[in-house]
Structures are given as structure tokens and as C-alpha cells.
TrEMBL record:
Keywords: DNA-binding, Transcription, Transcription regulation
Entry-linked InterPro entries: LysR_HTH_N (IPR000847), LysR_subst-bd (IPR005119), WH-like_DNA-bd_sf (IPR036388), WH_DNA-bd_sf (IPR036390)
Name of this protein: DNA-binding transcriptional LysR family regulator
Signal sequence range: none
Alphabetized PANTHER family for the sequence: HTH-TYPE TRANSCRIPTIONAL REGULATOR, HTH-TYPE TRANSCRIPTIONAL REGULATOR YJIE
Protein origin, superkingdom: Bacteria
Family: Belongs to the LysR transcriptional regulatory family.
PROSITE patterns tied to this protein: HTH_LYSR
Domain HTH lysR-type, chain residue ranges per copy: 1-58
Molecular functions (GO terms): DNA-binding transcription factor activity; transcription cis-regulatory region binding
Length: 297
């Protein structure tokens, strides 16, 4: 259960329009509809009669509406009561970020912000998974900034007047495998045999980027031995001998240096050069947020 599901439902109950409610909640209509269904699945009942135009609440939906409103109010009051003192809040910056960046990039990068007058206290918001859901943490004021990878194969189509962005780093996504297995990708291409492949799935950033990269390069058969959206978990799987995986270079630099892992191909075409970008919501914000943004310029 997420608070935003309740807020979505109340907004839909007010508008009785999926498209209008999605617009008011600053998400796409498919994402909004998915969240309403997640709420219904969690409750185990149907809240919305979708067969009617405009949509209407079911009897269960009408019963649940005041409960949802009360719970939103209660959670907001509880959050206000539990928040730390104003001085600590004033210097706290909340980052939404892809999980891998919190491990490989943020610790050193945050050192560059240490010169901000008055000091900086950072906090990571939970990774929501998809780019759109993470961007929505900015809209819902759950985060001040969003850090993500960027590549032309997976364009992030955002209005930069509403969501300004800055380039803050570079990364390379490399195909790697255990040294004992040799150049697994080159061998698979040469012998036309299936490659044991550790997959990010189809919908994560790396999964989409690799799917589009594979469509541009020589085809090869892949046998998925494991799927996980988290790079650090896939790293553990390749170290255990489960196959080839594309990983950020910064995540495997030690293993490449010691020879525990090797690149799975000598062809640089299989490497993705990535930008690391930071987004914020346009318009005025708290002084500490503006100080971070100005430091990045």
C-alpha cells in the first residue's frame, strides 16, 4: 500500500475521469490506471466501474472513499508531527536515484557539495524502479533531485523548462564474465552457440538500453540464467559463474583489475557510453536546493 494510491483514488473520485485525474496527478494515464488497479488488488475489491462513461465508483468504492480521505489526513498529520527540527530540515536534500548510482557514484560525488555554506545533510528516497515513477517523486515533493543514467537509445522525453537537468558524470556499461570462462560473448558469436545471459528484464533502464543495442548489432542467441533489475545482484551472479552480464565499469573496476572478471568481448561496439544526469523540478525551491543546483553549474 502506498499513500499515492489513496491520493490517486480520491482525485479520481472527484473527477470521475482517468485522463483528467492523471493530468492533475502529473502522471501518464497508463501509469495512473496501473496504480488504481494496484490499490484494488491490495484491497481485493473493485473500486471503479469502468464500464460507465464517465467512470463511477462501485458500492465498495463509495464505502472506501471516506476511509481513504481520513487515512491521507492522518498520514499527513503524522508526518508533520514526526519531522525533525526546522534547522535539520533546512539543510537536508533528498535525492531520488537509480540504485546502482547510490553505490557507484553518489558517495564521491557528494564530496563535491561539501563546500556548501552551512553544511549539507543528504537522504535517499526509495527507488521506485521506473524512470517515470522516480521523476514523479519530484512532482510530489518527495525528492529534491533525481539522478539517473542517460543514453540516446533510451531517451527521457521531459520538458526541460519544467524539469531542468545537468550532466554530472560519465559511465560505461561493459559486458563482463568470469575470467575462467574466457571471452563468453565473442565465443558465442564465433561458434553460434547460446550465451548464458544475466538479464535486467525488459523494463529497467539497462534492460531497455541493452535490448535496443542488441537490435543494432549482430544477432546472437541468449539463454537467460537469471533476471534481476539490480546491478549489484547480477554482479554476484556472474562472480558465481552464472554467465555474462553488462555492468557499470565503476562497479567492477576492482574485479577487472585483479582479473577476477574480464570483458566478455574485445569489440567496443558492445559497450554503452552513458551520461549521468541530475533533474529537478523547475521554479523556486528551498535555499539549500538552490545552493546545490548553483554548485553544479
Amino acid at each position: 500500500m502506498e499513500l499515492k494510491w489513496l491520493e490517486d483514488f480520491v482525485c479520481l473520485a472527484e473527477t470521475l475521469s482517468f485522463s483528467r485525474a492523471a493530468e492533475m496527478r502529473h502522471v501518464s494515464q497508463p501509469a495512473f490506471s496501473r496504480r488504481i488497479r494496484q490499490l484494488e488488488q491490495w484491497l481485493g475489491v473493485t473500486l471503479i466501474n469502468r464500464a460507465m462513461v464517465p467512470a463511477d465508483l462501485t458500492p465498495e468504492g463509495r464505502k472506501f472513499l471516506p476511509v481513504a480521505i481520513d487515512n491521507i489526513r492522518l498520514m499527513q498529520e503524522t508526518r508533520r508531527a514526526l519531522r525533525p527540527d526546522s534547522k535539520e530540515v533546512a539543510r537536508t536534500v533528498v535525492f531520488s536515484s537509480l540504485h546502482t548510482l547510490t553505490l557507484t557514484f553518489m558517495p564521491d560525488w557528494l564530496q563535491k557539495l561539501a563546500t556548501i555554506k552551512g553544511g549539507l545533510r543528504s537522504r535517499i528516497a526509495p527507488d521506485r524502479g521506473g524512470i517515470e515513477d522516480n521523476i514523479n517523486t519530484l512532482v510530489e515533493k518527495e525528492a529534491d533531485f533525481f539522478l539517473t543514467y542517460s543514453h540516446p537509445l533510451v531517451p527521457i522525453l521531459l520538458d526541460e523548462t519544467r524539469f531542468p537537468r545537468r550532466l554530472i558524470g560519465k559511465e560505461r556499461l561493459l559486458p563482463v564474465c568470469p575470467a575462467s570462462a574466457g571471452k563468453m560473448l565473442d565465443n558465442a558469436l564465433k561458434t553460434n552457440t547460446p550465451l548464458d545471459y544475466l538479464s535486467y528484464g525488459d523494463y529497467s533502464f539497462f534492460g531497455m538500453a541493452l535490448g535496443r543495442l542488441f537490435a543494432l548489432l549482430p544477432t546472437f542467441e541468449r539463454t537467460v540464467s537469471h533476471e534481476n533489475t539490480m546491478s549489484v545482484s547480477l554482479k554476484a551472479m556472474t562472480l558465481a559463474g552464472w554467465g555474462t552480464v553488462w555492468l557499470p565499469e565503476s562497479l567492477v573496476s576492482d574485479e577487472l583489475e585483479t582479473g577476477t572478471l574480464v570483458t566478455a568481448s574485445d569489440d567496443p561496439a558492445w559497450i554503452l557510453d552513458l551520461d549521468i544526469c541530475i533533474y529537478r523540478l523547475g521554479g523556486p525551491s528551498r535555499p539549500i536546493v538552490e545552493a546545490v543546483w548553483n554548485t553544479l553549474s
